[in-house]
Write a structure and sequence with these properties.
four-stranded mixed β-sheet; Beta-lactamase; seven-stranded antiparallel β-sheet
Length: 389
């Protein structure tokens, strides 16, 4: 094992292969700082961390290091929506406009909640050019989406609502519960379940947040989303990622402004342990240690396929979704069981639940890698999990 990193934490003997694979991620796959955690039928069996929380390797990654998990946040947001569905407060087959009347603009009065959660609403982006600070103003973004005409006939195809799903789902949650997305997640899910996970991070936590380091440029021949986006600056791919133009500012993700915002599509901060604990609860029917998040019957909605096929935003590559969660698909599987659900984040982070094997999985890291779905480091850890089962 290389001397410039240490692996710490706990690992059941049966899962020693995961510890070995985790170390190999540092030795062979460019890991800088990371953590992985696994729950099996509600019991923590792996909780490992290692490496460094900064590029200069002056700060060790510790037990409680937080990091931005980009689109892994979508699983947290989706769980909030499913809790409301389970309680009968949100009906996935009712029009969004029933809960959010302003949404009925621009021919959207009949779009059901289901389409919004499964990337079928035709609202992956806002066409009108937005100020770079608009992303940090909830009302500006919600109002712009309410006024936006769909990019395609809703329900006829799907395209990744990379950031917009956070405001679309979040505004529904706010209208129904009276709480902002971050507050709802905190009071209804994170605090009851004992999660160190946040949508909108308080400044008091900054001392234990690791910066994210950008991925290297894709090699020739590798998928290059931003190169594709630049081919049509008025198209949905460019607008989804470059309007507002935040993703052109590589260090914005490490700013206080970014951390404080409530971006349900992409700025959650969490530990791997908390991701694994949340998905560990969902993997065993929605309950863990006496805390029930949703009913056992509700879990079927978490993995029921809603969208599968060419993605109108992600370069026509096939993607597969339920309401709010990404599902396993060829080349990007959350283990061998088709009912698994979760969400990866740009650069590599991942959380998922397998209700067949009752696995809850969480992985966080600070050195971003290229790729659009499951990163090679997470994939190696997934393989190690199932090899041990």
């Amino acid at each position: 094992m290389s001397s410039d990193f240490r692996i710490e934490g706990e690992c059941d003997k049966r899962f020693e292969g995961i510890k070995t694979t985790f170390a190999e991620n540092f030795e062979k796959r460019g890991e800088l700082g990371a953590a992985v955690a696994i729950f099996i039928d509600g019991r923590p069996v792996v909780d490992l961390w290692g490496g460094h929380a900064d590029k200069g390797k002056a700060r060790p990654w510790t037990r409680d290091t937080l990091v931005n998990v980009y689109s892994t946040t979508k699983g947290l947001t989706a769980t909030c929506a499913h809790r409301l569905i389970d309680q009968g407060k949100l009906d996935p087959d009712e029009p969004v406009a029933r809960y959010w009347p302003e949404f009925a603009q621009a021919g959207k009065k009949d779009i059901p909640v289901r389409y919004v959660l499964s990337h079928r609403a035709g609202l992956p982006a806002i066409k009108k050019t937005l100020d770079e600070n608009a992303i940090f103003d909830w009302d500006t973004m919600a109002n712009a989406l309410a006024a936006q005409e769909p990019w395609w006939q809703p329900g006829t195809k799907h395209g990744y609502h990379a950031l917009t799903i956070g405001w679309l789902a979040g505004e529904l949650i706010r209208r129904i519960s009276g709480k902002g997305l971050g507050a709802y997640f905190r009071t209804e899910i994170a605090e009851p379940l004992g999660l160190d996970a946040h949508i909108g991070l308080d400044a008091k936590h900054d001392v234990r947040v690791s910066d994210l380091l950008p991925a290297p440029l894709p090699a020739p021949g590798e998928p290059n989303l931003f190169e594709e986006a630049m081919k049509d600056l008025e198209g949905p791919t460019a607008k989804a990622f470059l309007n507002p133009p935040v993703l052109t500012k590589p260090n914005l993700v490490n700013s206080r402004e970014w951390r404080a915002a409530e971006l349900g599509g992409g700025n959650g901060h969490a530990t791997a342990r908390s991701l694994a604990r949340l998905y560990g609860a969902l993997a065993r029917g929605g309950e863990l240690d006496g805390c029930r998040i949703v009913s056992r019957q509700a879990i079927e909605r978490f993995y029921a396929e809603q969208s599968y096929g060419p993605d109108q935003v992600l370069m026509q590559m096939p993607t597969r979704f339920s309401m709010g969660f990404m599902l396993s698909q060829p080349g990007a599987a959350f283990g061998p069981n088709r009912k698994s659900f979760g969400h990866p984040g740009a650069g590599g982070s991942l959380g998922f639940a397998d209700p067949i094997a009752k696995v809850g999985f969480g992985y966080t890291m600070n050195q971003m890698a290229n790729g659009l779905l499951i990163d090679s480091r997470a994939a190696a850890l997934i393989d190690a999990v199932y090899a041990a089962l």
